[in-house]
Amino acid sequence: MDNNIKREIILENYQNPKNKGLLNDDSYLKTNMNNESCIDELNLEVKIEDDIIKDIRFDGEACAICISSASIMTTTLIGKTVKEAETILENFLNMLDEKPYDKEILEEAIVYDDIYKNPNRKKCALLSWWGIEKILNQLKANEK
Questions:
Q1: Are 89 and 99 in contact (CB under 8 A)?
Q2: Res 100 pLDDT > 90
Q3: pTM of the complete model
């Protein structure tokens, strides 16, 4: 993907983030994520019904990369099954760790394919994804 298009997608998702704003609904699973090395702090709410991610909301104070990544993550994962979300998450993490990944399933999240070149920004892009991983792991633990 062209670098100018990547920048446009990141900027659009920062300036007009999708699914920003918490609902404080008890039917949502919640977590707080923060990056110790900067100001990034996000609260995530995820609604899962019948093994499908029905909604993801986020809010907090964070940089452009963190906010845009959270926005893109929400639009990528809403409507997916938990298993599909886990596969997308695994591929996103692999991409940022420079491991083999399937770029076809990442949708707009592919805009971060070269973020590894800026190691200090990698955590910014990962914060919301780590939050989803944490929530999905809690969900699995509760099912046991």
A1: no
A2: yes
A3: 0.95
Q: At 50, phi and psi to the nearest 5? A: 50, 40
Fold observed for domain 3-138: Sufe protein. Chain: A (3.90.1010)
Q: CA angle at residue 60 from 66 to 51, to 5 degrees?
A: 80
Calculate the average pLDDT of the chain: 95
What are residue 41's phi and psi, to 5 degrees?
-145, 125
CA distance 96 to 140: 24
What does the domain layout of the chain look like in residue ranges?
3-138
**96 closest CA partner among 72, 126, 120:** 126
Give me 106's structure tokens.
């990442």
